[in-house]
Specification:
Chain lengths: ~700, ~375
């Protein structure tokens, strides 16, 4: 709300300079966004919290200023001259929906002269950012900005039978509002109607109707100043998608007692600026009158919550200035600073949200100054714990970074067609009911979707070498339940090794991806050191010849491979892209179990001996099978079996390939002799010849 | 006094017949060599000295080899050979020492040829990087961990109960208007609506449901608000929630904790202030400001004019926080008369933007490797 500095002076004799005042207001709860010195003096932009409807008017801000600077708040008591004719003879009011409208007051002024407002009024409205229309309309806006209570003025002669009926809207009832829009209502909305109540002439607390609007030909004015239920107003504004100055004030909870005062103030100004005859009295239907609430605040609770004390005088001065009328009620009355001190307060009608002791403690603290409570660190009571997989996840992250991968963070909202490309069959995605756009209408059902998008971004921005990983989640529905699964997603494209002074370039290949995953698998290898296990297969979006499923122990962990050409084309990725996704929880759990099982192995004291076997194998026989066959011999001295060279083509018969296998022998007890090694090698050759028809090549 | 050694005669001709005589003779030669060395002070003397001792045809060593060693009787050959080798090593070593002393350029020449070009890169093993958001998360986690806060996490797809109701935000509460919410499209007849959490605060409730006081937790995570994206808004961003509940937590403990965090994160010279504010699930509620890290709190830009980051205020609003509203305890069966606590929720993206001078939140989520590699 725009606060006009000079307007405040109508109510408190503030002497603090605007900047200082702004800072004091901010530190007591009314944040000031800006202080500007304009053509009509200083204007402060107050950011009023949704719990403080009382500060949506200058009078309420002045009350805050009074409390902070210990200044007297001047009373507002307009006494407009009234004629002998009674208003009760001129207008009737009936509230049929007291749950929506707790009070309705009406005053009537006859023979007004509608004309432009005087300069002082226009200036204050302009400083507040409100356009001037005519004196009577301007006055109702002025009173709203002054006292924080919204009013509405009708052309009295256009109100049928001079009768107002406040009722709930009928289903699908329609009315054209002041802004010229035809709107439709529902029964939770409060309507102001006239005559036999068949015609709506305003939406209660939100906006008036077009048909009874004040115009330059208006002679007689009906002033409505009412109180509407805040929850009903907020519901209505959301239903109508219509937010007005009035709905903001009623929606946050206006002061029902203010209704009559604001109406009187309005009448006073109309008489002053538009002349006319104010009918005597007020028509006041007030079904929602509340008895003032009593609230107690004790020093004990203040100390328990705030941790430091506030002097009695401060407590009493602050609460008094804010209208809570504190009275000491404890047995130690008179003993200043007593730990037993208790004050009974009355809830002022403009502070409906202050209902509890804690609310009063907040009032005391904010006026006293939050900086007066000395900061300290609380005592720790127990050891702190990280997330269960924090340690494993950190090692995973560090290893991937060491392997050259950059971590990414993505927004999970993706396009439906993108998600569908990678979504496994029979998975139902979590779609948004109210997406901002088609491009962001589904939560990714696999991490691959956003990983592919990140690679795409880089390729489209001239970065053709990218190795990325993300530790995130994918989101799916199971029936009406959501399932969020932590996943590790990996993507690589471009050069695995860039050309440099010492190295030749090399493109990222399936082997790079596999090497990366196996390097992670090593961390989760378990007691038997098996690591990740690979098997043929995988989703259709991966290249049929370069994809695999990854397992850890008995569980499926994920998939890895090269993006299928068909999908890459669709995403306009013009180079080979490699992707993998692993479920994170089982991987981390295995990493932790593996680490827990780590035991030192004494280093062997006897030398190791390597033996190479150059094999000619039929296509289709895998290294894994060769390895398995060698292992099946159960020679304890075999400590490693590695593939060290592989080639096809020249000198290799078609349908075959050549594989160089290096076996390392080592004993923990003795130095192996040539005879022993030859014996082992013989067994190996024999099993490979027998099982795989392997031929030995001269190496 | 015996005769000085004669390099032109065989040992027999000089009357040397025993190993003792051989040893003594070589000691004398070595003495002669050392005496000559003392005279060497420049390059030409060095050359002469070298010629005299190491010259290929008439140098002393050559002559000793030819005349003493080769002509030695078999009985002395072993001793003479040993002495000769020791002398040779000694002479060569000494000569090299003198050469390096007198000819500094000699060593330089070798070094120049072999010296590495330090401006050339080494062998580069491409190393990846932590995402900046992760780094800030980790830093915040470490700071709070150091003062006894555990880390917990929870679902991003939440129920309205946890996201709103249990946090004292009933339907049609005005603050719901500030938290435009994404809802999940559920099959007809779903038991309850689901939404994307608008803050990490639901984890306050989930934590207190599971655990009795004392509670000290932080919750890092993603949150969602249905705002149109621009340089300062993303419909997904990151928060760290904090919650401490105990029998003796006061407002002073709250401000002390926040100040500790900020000084750890932004540095000890940063000033802090708490402004009263309003949130439905805390009371008293505050907005927390730090002195502007760009202008040092002066409000003035370095080149004159007002600081654009704090708009001249000297303060930057960091996040909202406060003492847990007693109403919240009602939802988790805590006794509001016996326990008290505080809660805060800070936007991580904004903290990272402030600290690293990033002016567009979208760069975090585009994941351009040129951005990712800036913060290795
Ligand atoms: Zn600044």
């Amino acid at each position: 709300m725009k606060v006009v500095y000079n307007w405040l002076k109508d109510f408190v004799d503030v002497t603090a300079a605007p900047q200082e005042l702004a800072s004091r207001l901010a530190l007591s709860g009314t944040n000031i966004g800006s202080v500007e010195n304009g053509p009509h003096g200083v204007v402060m932009d107050a950011e009023v919290g949704s719990n403080r409807p009382d500060c949506l008017g200058h009078y309420g801000i002045a009350r805050e200023v009074g409390a902070i600077h210990k200044l007297v708040l001047k009373p507002v008591s307009p006494k407009p001259a009234e004629s002998k004719n009674k208003v009760s003879d001129a207008v009737k009011v009936e509230i049929q929906a007291p749950e929506l409208c707790g009070r309705f007051t009406a005053r009537v002024i006859r023979n007004v002269k509608i004309q432009p407002s005087p300069k002082w009024l226009k200036d204050r409205l302009e400083a507040s950012g409100v356009a001037s229309i005519s004196n009577v309309v301007d006055i109702s806006n002025y009173v709203m900005l002054e006292l924080g209570h919204a009013l509405h003025t009708f052309d009295y002669d256009k109100v049928r039978d001079h009768k107002i009926v406040v009722r709930a809207a009928k289903l699908k009832e329609k009315m054209r509002t002041l802004d010229g829009v035809e709107r439709e209502f529902d029964p939770g909305i409060c309507m102001i109607s006239d005559g036999d109540a068949s015609r709506a002439i305003g939406i209660g607390g939100i906006m008036g109707g077009a048909e009874t609007e004040i115009s330059f030909s208006t002679k007689n004015v009906l002033i409505e100043c009412a109180w509407f239920d805040p929850v009903a107003i907020r519901r209505a504004t959301r239903f109508l998608k219509l937010h007005t100055e009035a709905s903001t004030r009623f929606g946050r909870g206006a002061d029902p007692e203010m209704a009559e005062l604001a109406s009187r103030r309005c009448a006073e100004l109309i008489l002053q600026l538009a002349g006319g005859e104010l009918l005597a009295g007020v028509v006041d239907v007030y079904p929602g009158k509340r008895a003032p609430k009593k609230i107690q605040v004790t020093r004990k609770e203040l100390l328990r919550v705030m941790g430091a004390d506030v002097p009695d005088k401060q407590i009493e001065a602050s609460l008094s200035a804010l209208g809570f009328a504190p009275v000491r009620v404890d047995h130690n009355r008179g003993a200043e600073g007593s730990l037993l001190a208790a004050w009974e307060c009355a809830q002022p009608p403009w502070r409906a949200e202050v209902e509890r002791e804690i609310d009063l403690i907040e009032e005391i603290a904010r006026i006293y100054g939050l900086d007066k409570f000395p900061p300290r660190l609380p005592a720790a009571r127990q050891g702190a714990a990280r997330l269960p997989h924090h340690e494993a996840e950190t090692r995973l992250r560090e290893r991937l970074i060491g392997l050259g991968y950059c971590e990414i963070v993505t927004i999970p909202h993706v396009a439906e067609d993108r998600d569908a490309l990678f979504r496994p069959a029979n998975v139902s995605p979590a779609r948004l009911a109210n997406p901002l756009s088609e491009e962001a209408s589904v939560l990714k059902s696999t991490g691959i979707v956003t990983m592919a998008a990140a690679l795409e971004w880089n390729l489209n921005h001239g970065q053709r070498n990218a190795r990325l990983f993300e530790i995130g989640r994918h989101y799916r529905l199971q029936g009406d339940k959501s399932v969020e699964t932590p996943v590790l997603t990996i993507g690589g494209t471009g050069e695995a090794r860039e050309k440099g002074l010492y190295d030749s370039p090399r493109e990222f290949s399936f082997a790079d991806l596999k090497g990366t995953l196996d390097a992670l698998g090593e961390l989760a290898a378990g007691r038997d050191a098996r690591g990740l296990e690979w098997s043929n297969g995988g989703p259709e979006w991966l290249h049929a010849a370069r994809r695999g499923k990854v397992q850890l122990g008995k569980g499926e962990l994920g998939v890895a491979g090269q993006l299928a050409r068909r999908v890459a084309d669709r995403l306009k990725l013009r180079q080979d892209v490699f992707l993998a996704e692993l479920e994170l929880d089982p991987l981390c759990a295995a990493m932790q179990a593996t680490k827990a099982a780590w035991r030192y192995q004494r280093l062997p004291r006897f030398p190791a001996v390597e033996r190479d076997f150059s094999l000619l194998l039929a296509e289709g026989i895998t290294f894994g099978e060769i390895k398995e066959s060698i292992s099946s011999l159960n020679i304890p001295e075999v400590v490693s079996i590695k593939a060290v060279d592989l080639f096809r083509g020249k000198n290799v018969p078609a349908g075959n390939y050549s594989l160089l296998v290096r076996v390392t022998f080592q004993s923990r007890e003795v130095t192996l002799t040539d005879a022993q090694i030859n014996h082992f090698a013989g067994k190996i050759i024999s099993v490979l010849e027998h099982r795989h028809n392997a031929q030995r090549r001269a190496s | 006094m015996k005769n000085p050694p004669n390099f032109g005669l065989s040992l027999a001709d000089q009357g040397i017949e025993t190993p003792q005589q051989v040893a003594s003779l070589f000691t004398t030669v070595r003495q002669m060599f050392d005496d000559a060395a003392l005279q060497v002070s420049d390059e030409s003397a060095l050359a002469d000295w070298r010629n005299a001792w190491l010259g290929r045809r008439t140098g002393v060593l050559t002559m000793i080899g030819d005349n003493w060693l080769k002509k030695a009787p078999a009985s002395l050959r072993g001793d003479v050979g040993k002495q000769f080798n020791q002398l040779k090593l000694y002479v060569e070593t000494k000569f090299e020492e003198h050469r390096q002393r007198i000819e500094p350029g000699a060593e330089e020449a070798v070094l120049t040829r072999e010296r590495v070009d330090l401006s050339l890169p080494g062998v580069i093993h491409p190393i990846g990087s932590h995402h900046l958001i992760s780094q800030v998360f980790q830093e915040i986690e470490d700071i709070f961990f150091s003062i006894g806060f555990s880390v917990v996490d929870g679902p991003e797809i939440e129920t309205p109960y946890y996201n709103f109701e249990a946090l004292n935000i009933p339907e049609f509460h005005p603050v719901r208007d500030d938290m435009d919410t994404f809802y999940i499209d559920l099959p007809k007849g779903a038991a309850r609506p689901l939404l994307l959490r608008t803050h990490t605060s639901p984890m306050q409730i989930r934590t207190m449901e599971k655990q009795k006081p004392p509670v000290r937790v932080i919750v890092p995570g993603k949150v969602y608000r249905r705002d149109n994206p621009d340089a300062t808004h993303s419909f997904m961003f990151h928060q760290v929630e904090g919650l401490a509940v105990d029998t003796d937590i006061t407002f002073c403990d709250f401000t002390g904790t926040i100040e500790y965090f900020v000084k750890q994160f932004f540095g000890p010279s940063v000033k802090t202030r708490f402004r009263p504010s309003y949130f439905p699930f805390t009371e008293p509620s505050v907005e927390f400001d730090v002195s502007c890290i760009f202008c040092g709190g002066s409000g003035n830009a370095a080149g004159g004019g007002t600081c654009s980051k704090c708009k001249g205020a000297g303060w930057i609003e960091l996040f909202g926080a406060g003492m847990v509203d007693p109403a919240v305890y009602g939802f988790v069966n805590y006794d509001a008369k016996k326990v008290s606590g505080f809660a805060f929720g800070m936007g991580i993206d904004r903290l990272a933007m402030l600290r690293y001078g990033i002016d567009d939140i979208q760069v975090f989520f585009q994941n351009d490797v040129r951005f990712l590699r800036q913060f290795p």
